[in-house]
Design a protein that fits this description.
With 607 residues, the chain is α/β, with parallel strands linked by helices. It contains 17 helices and eight strands. An eight-stranded mixed beta sheet has the order 1-2-4-3-5-6-7-8. The termini are far apart. Keywords: Hydrolase.
Length: 607
Amino acid sequence: MTLGPVAYPAELTSTSQRATTLATNLRAVAENVSDAHTRLQDGGRPADWEGEASEAADHAMTVVVADLDAGVAALEQGSLAMDTYAAALVSLEQRFVALVDEIDAVNAQVAAHQSDRRTANAVPDADTTLLDQQQGQLQSATADLRARVAQWEADARSAHEEVVAALQRVDTVAEGDDAARAPDRTDAAGLADDLQALVDSGDPTAIAGFWAGLDPAERQALTIHSPQLVGNADGVPVADRDVANRTSLYSDVDYLGQREADDQLSRNEADQLANARSTRDVLDDYRDDIDVTTGDHLSNLLVYKPGEHGGNGGVALSLGDPDLADDVAALVPGVTSEQSSLAGNVSSMDRLLTEADAQNGDRSVATIAWLDYNAPSGEPWNPDDLLDVVQDSGDLLMTTNELFANAGGDRFADFVAGLRASDEQAGEDGGGRAHLTAIGHSYGSTTASYAATAGMDVDDLVLIGSPGAGEGNDEATDLLASGNVWVGAAEHDPITHLGNPGRIGLGHDPAQDYFDAHRFEVDPGSYRVEDLFANHSSYFDEGSDSLANIAAVTTGNDPTLVDGRTAPGALTLPALIAGSSAASAGEQLVEHGDDLLRLLDPRGILP
């Protein structure tokens, strides 16, 4: 048998990412059609209509309602078929990469063998026993590999043919009508009522069990009928929350975008559209990033509430799947944390993911940016007009009050409980309980502290740039009875010097020695007064000590520790402001001293 190289399989004509995007778009269309169906079905004709006009209206609306329901049924089946196809493509893509690697290796061995054979053939009476044995082994290996390539190509054709057939089964009006009237069609409204009751009960474990008991068609129908409910239900698996929330997102972008084009957008709707577009832009930024653990897209939209929190919106996005990762870290940001600031917080979590992966060996990591509470917001130092100054200043005054942090802490504790429930449900199919770290930055550290006192189930709590750990929390054990509390406080970060009872109402500085938390090393930051607030936002800077130490906690490793602050002798806020102001003034004097001297003594009289 002639020995030759193995041919590479033909590349796929589609990708799992494109199939997933199409499935999401089909669901978004289905949601809009479903909403129109529900509104028309519930609204009916005006109550005071009578006679022939009333009968004609009833008949017309009955026809339209039936047509809309047929469209929904067809889209349910179509999007489910595309989901199935996307999952098949994920597997095919992973197998393709493995096959190409094997073909590269085997073909290199074949080429080397053929070179050795040519050399041996040039030598009279050369002993080719070993070459003959090697050729037999390579012929067996190449035959096996060609068979697996053929099987891969057959599976790729089969997946394509199956999705085409599934779509063709519902590509006419009559077939849509048949799907809508099928006796085994899912009662999506009834399932939505059942899920809503579980959400109202506040039991994420029951929600996880409910979802696990649904078949794929039921999940698809429920997601299309009530994507906002599914996507924001703590306990529903991360991957399914992502599907539901993307459905809502793209439906909003389409519907509200059309209202904008028609000049019909209300102020509240304008806020929602801006929030939807900012979230879509972040998802687009990560569109091509793949989770090496799952082979699926890296980003997952866990919370999507564009109309919440006074128009600021609520959102949470993970990089990696927390249900499948070994180590999970969730960030609660602070002041000005709203849906429009998602991009910056996800970038921080991207840097943490990269650093944690570098430290984590074979364990997998997922990171989350959680912005689903009414954090103080606004930028009075950069206003658009006087009204913004008044509104934003009033909002920022709430940073000295624990009200938002306390309420946000309850919400975050519920979110974490949902992560635990869906993770444990996934763990029944293999894999253990994730090591979970909560990270609170700035006002978010106070929020995370209140979540801890509300019973948040985490292994580690990290407080960085903290203005205080919440009133009534006198030491680390008040936050976590079991587990570790870690603190990162840059010496030249003014916010970290605000804590202590009675000062601004946010509780003790957790970096103090008496608080008995584990304080890890953080870069002190610039000592120039104009850089102080930049120091406050530097904890996730690439290459920083703080990022490396937060990643160490995230991955269950030991960060580099330093002593807690002690009084007297510790730097105070007045001393920091005075010293940094003097340092900046001194720099200016050195830099511009000659100019100042010429201004004061233009004739050069002074010595």
